[in-house]
Please model this.
Amino acid sequence: MSIRQGLLALLSHEPMYGARLRSEFERRTGGTWPLNVGQVYTTLGRLQRDGLVEGDGEPDEDGRITYQLTDAGRDEVTSWFGSPVDRADDPRDELTIKLALGVTLPGVDVVGLIQAQRSATVTHLQDLTRLKRDALDNGDLPWELVLERSIFTAEAQVRWLDHMESRVRRAAAHASATVPVADVDHEMQESRA
Amino acid sequence: MSIRQGLLALLSHEPMYGARLRSEFERRTGGTWPLNVGQVYTTLGRLQRDGLVEGDGEPDEDGRITYQLTDAGRDEVTSWFGSPVDRADDPRDELTIKLALGVTLPGVDVVGLIQAQRSATVTHLQDLTRLKRDALDNGDLPWELVLERSIFTAEAQVRWLDHMESRVRRAAAHASATVPVADVDHEMQESRA
DNA sequence: ACAGCCATGTAACTTGTTACATGATTTT
DNA sequence: AAAATCATGTAACAAGTTACATGGCTGT
Model:
């Protein structure tokens, strides 16, 4: 849903043609997210289908077709900027699923998994930090915003991994103290005939 | 890609039929992510198409069809658990896009946006913390893992929002000191005829 | 018999994404 | 004239998601 909203937001500022939407989107997100031009057109088509934008049928002398918001589109943008991103739709995070399933399945070296992930994330974090340092103060606010977002996210991931490593170790120690051999698997009534 | 991988991981432990995959998936992710049963079957179909699982054609006496991994499927699971989640595919985060576009578009009250989001996130964080407290120590490790993930993520989001609020304020102050009226929009050679 | 549940699936749709096709203009 | 660039778009697919249809078994 983010590209849809993004294009709408750009159009709320000024009617534009497809290819410009692309470059504006990229520029205004710090060049971090390359956007296939084709996707602009597919998305525009869907937005038009949904009555949020309309294009002035014919291309102009430069072959460009300008798209603009409808009233509904304007409402949509206002509402988007006016309301916080919904926490409820907790997306299925791959790493979380991996760990959650990992701790319940026998034969998965969860601690090793956590450490490998931590190492990868720390490396990534160093790259990000270097990027930030090398950029000095070029005043590209969107770029900075996106970069800092990655940094804060990666830091949180490392913290979470550390927290969970000790938590998992604790659980493992406790499990081996009480149920030396067997594993999580049991329950789930099978209701056999 | 997470549900695919999740189902594969479950099947790597033990062959299962569709409906059980569903309940196992939900149970082992702390019940946080309800999974429509239909989706299990669509996903199984795609996995079978891709040669990662195979079902024993006919349903058993209880009407169940057991699915199991192929060799390729086993490889896939091994590789999934064996490699860190790729940081490279930085997903397009809605909130980041919203802010990044917001700071480049005139007429968007970014500071207000940040504060509203912060408030919503803090509220959410309190809910999570209460959940955690009330659960005491029931030993549901996957559930805890997922919950803590949400908590660490929300905390990071708040930190980022705070960081960015002051950063945006600074930029605004600087902008009004140097370019009192006009806004970010300019550049982007238009190459008009 | 009928209601409810379990288990199977399918059809339809959404957003994201890429690879390719077409035509016009500009540059070499 | 050939190559590069810009702009338009379409076709095809992935993965997620839901609503619905079918059929068997169970308990009232």
